[in-house]
Write a structure and sequence with these properties.
Blueprint: H1 2-25, H2 30-59, H3 63-87, H4 96-110, H5 112-126, E1 135-138, E2 143-150, E3 154-159, E4 164-168, H6 171-174, E5 178-179, H7 181-184, E6 191-199, H8 209-216, H9 218-224, H10 241-254, E7 259-260, E8 266-269, E9 277-285, H11 290-308, H12 321-328
Antiparallel strand pairs: 1-2, 1-5, 2-3, 3-4, 6-9, 7-9, 8-9
Helix pairs in contact: 1-2, 1-4, 2-3
Length: 332
């Protein structure tokens, strides 16, 4: 509603300034003023009507209707300009160059955002890069949500934290934005999970014969089923626990029905940090819901944390009072 009022004020200001320009260069003509006033009223009405229809089409996700409404707004503005020139015969005036220069500068000032928006709007719509209901992220504006409305100048979104954001549509061409709708609709391999877990390198060591036998025992596998994911010949005395754990986790991911094996599934060590050696889990979770994605990601993290101790490994964390208490053997 505020945008439509500003459009009306802009058009009215343009008319008043045009009157002053024409009055300066040309004798006043009542009929001409009546025509331009009628044309201005009609243009303002059409712009307001198209603004209302844009809101309706946005709610109903009729993107073709939105596109046509925005095109009509541009056309009626062009009709007003042409009508103004013809009504006052500015093209026949000896000082028409000055008049056109002033009008052009005025239009550029008032509609500069719309001019940028038109270019972006046409680019986005012609390449099907943005639609009503799409989930997008715009890092520069800290926006992460669903598109609710698109006009020549703005994009309105409902963020996941239940707030509403409005950003210039031109920002979607000049700045980086991410459209996650294909992933959300399940038209990709899945939702990417890239999570690293810092493993304490003090726990890296070869496993003993007793540990190898325990990992292969029937009782242990009834509850943990390690042999269902790790070849038995890999579990032997002297095997490096970090190596066989990484192999176990890789096969566990490969056999997880909620994890896609495309486009890539990586379980690898990355550059060491002060706290230890990070183990990177880079997989794609098969889902079409952000809630389910976060749930599955949590299940994977919980399994990593639980299964580490089976191989004598542990996650790194900064020492706490509990750690100091155990080392000193006294109560703090």
């Amino acid at each position: 509603m505020k945008n439509r009022w500003w459009s009306f004020v802009g058009v009215l200001f343009m008319v008043l300034l045009a009157m002053l320009i024409v009055a300066y260069y040309k004798d006043n003509n009542v009929a001409s003023w009546l025509k331009i006033s009628t044309l201005t009223a009609g243009v303002t009405f059409v712009i307001g009507l198209c603004g209302t229809l844009t809101n309706i089409f946005s709610l109903r996700k009729k993107e073709s209707g939105i596109t046509w409404c925005q095109i009509i707004i541009l056309l009626v503005i062009g009709v007003w300009i042409i009508g103004f020139v013809m009504i006052f015969d500015i093209q026949k005036s000896g000082s028409s160059t000055v008049v056109f220069g002033i009008i052009g500068g005025l239009l550029s000032l008032i509609f500069q955002d719309k001019i940028k928006g038109v270019v972006t709007f046409i680019h986005l719509r012609s390449n099907n890069l943005l639609g009503i209901g799409d989930w997008i992220k715009v890092p520069k504006y800290n926006v992460d949500g669903v598109v609710r409305k698109v006009t020549l100048t703005t994009v309105t979104l409902s963020n996941w934290d239940t707030t509403t954001s409005t950003i210039p549509i031109s920002a979607l061409q000049s700045d980086h934005f991410i459209n996650l709708q294909y992933m959300s609709d399940g038209k990709t391999y899945g939702w990417r999970m890239s999570q690293s877990y810092i493993i304490d390198t003090d726990s890296f060591r070869p496993i003993t014969n007793e540990e190898a036998e325990q990992l292969k025992s029937d009782e242990f596998n009834k509850s943990h089923n390690i042999l269902g994911f790790l070849p038995e010949e890999e579990i032997k005395e002297g095997a490096f626990n970090a190596s066989i754990y990484r192999l176990y986790l890789y096969h566990w991911m490969m056999k997880n029905p909620r994890i896609s094996q495309k486009p890539r599934l990586n379980i690898r060590w990355i550059d060491q940090v002060d706290g230890g050696m990070p183990l990177l889990v880079y997989v794609f979770i098969i889902t079409d819901s952000i809630d389910d994605y976060e749930w599955q990601m949590s299940l994977i993290t919980e399994h990593v944390a639980e299964s580490l101790r089976w191989f004598g490994l542990r996650l790194y964390q900064h020492p706490t009072s509990h750690d100091y208490q155990q080392r000193k053997g006294v109560e703090l």
